């Protein structure tokens, strides 16, 4: 790809919206407290293993800080939630927060993979942890940690009529004393079957971070859940971070 004899970077052109039917997805998560007795855990800010909904439902959203309020002056005022509908089509919904009183949505989500603050008061961030549950509070789908402004979850689901291509997978950990080690697994889940597709092992006495770039990106089919679990944790209170990047391609005939 070139313009006026200059070589153009494909991923930059996708980010600029100049490659039809192609978009970039960057997912990143953190789990700051994994113990030897609780592993495996998913790399997301709520902790524990992530549970995917079996059916679409409306959302219930609440903060543990009264200042995250649409009528307030300091914390988060509004947020946007992004995910998939009952047919695995892309969907999003805007919410005005009401502090420690839950607000409910009107759209049905079968997946939630991102939420972020869209307006805020003087602190410019959410002051408390914002929790996004299903309608009866039986399942937590995402959280926005206090003072982060966005979900921290290495979890994504490929929308219907799309194919994804995994271009990178990285991880790091934090645990200074004593030394610690951890294994990260990238899992593909579809039609009731899980497959471990990538592994990373890191430790604080050697390399505390690792990144793998895919010269030949790994294809992922529509409606596949992609997420990262941490396991084989050697020390309590271990923190772990993970990132992965995808090129998402709409599957019209030309791009199949």
Characterization of the model:
Helix content is about 0%, strand content about 50%. The chain has one helix and 18 strands. It has one helix at about 10-15; strands at about 1-5, 5, 20-35, 40, 60-65, 75-85, 90-95, 105, 110-120, 130-135, 140-145, 155, 160-175, 180-190, 195-205, 210-220, 225-230, 240-250. The strands form five sheets. Strands 4, 12, 14, 15 and 17 form a five-stranded antiparallel β-sheet that branches. Strand 1 (about 1-5) and strand 2 form a beta hairpin. The longest helix is centred in the N-terminal third of the chain and has 6 residues, at about 10-15. The mean pLDDT is about 90.
Topology:
Layout (H helix, E strand, L loop, with lengths): L1 E2 L2 E2 L2 H6 L6 E13 L6 E2 L16 E5 L12 E9 L5 E7 L6 E2 L6 E10 L9 E5 L5 E5 L10 E3 L4 E13 L6 E10 L2 E11 L5 E12 L4 E7 L6 E13 L6
Antiparallel strand pairs: 1-2, 3-18, 4-17, 5-8, 5-10, 6-7, 6-9, 10-11, 12-17, 13-16, 13-18, 14-15, 14-17
């Amino acid at each position: 790809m070139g313009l006026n004899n200059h070589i153009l970077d494909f991923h930059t052109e996708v980010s600029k919206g100049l490659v039809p039917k192609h978009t970039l997805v960057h997912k990143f998560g953190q789990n700051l407290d994994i113990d030897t007795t609780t592993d495996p855990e998913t790399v997301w800010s709520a902790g524990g293993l992530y549970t995917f909904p079996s059916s679409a439902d409306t959302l219930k959203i609440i903060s543990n800080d009264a200042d995250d309020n649409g009528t307030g002056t300091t914390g988060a005022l509004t947020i946007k939630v992004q995910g998939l509908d009952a047919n695995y089509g892309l969907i999003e919904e805007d919410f005005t927060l009401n502090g420690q009183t839950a607000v409910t949505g009107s759209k049905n989500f079968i997946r939630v993979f991102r939420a972020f603050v869209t307006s805020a008061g003087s602190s410019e961030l959410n002051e408390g942890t914002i929790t996004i549950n299903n309608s009866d509070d039986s399942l937590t789908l995402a959280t926005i940690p206090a003072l982060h402004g966005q979900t921290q979850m290495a979890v994504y689901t490929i929308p219907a009529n799309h194919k994804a291509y995994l271009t990178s997978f990285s991880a790091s950990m934090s645990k200074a004393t004593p030394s610690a080690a951890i294994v990260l697994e990238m899992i593909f889940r579809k039609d009731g079957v899980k497959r471990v597709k990538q592994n990373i092992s890191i430790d604080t006495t050697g390399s505390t971070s690792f990144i793998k770039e895919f010269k030949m990106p790994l294809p992922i089919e529509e409606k596949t859940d992609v997420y990262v679990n941490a396991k084989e944790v050697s020390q309590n209170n271990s923190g772990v971070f993970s990132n992965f990047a995808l090129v998402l391609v709409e599957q019209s005939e030309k791009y199949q």
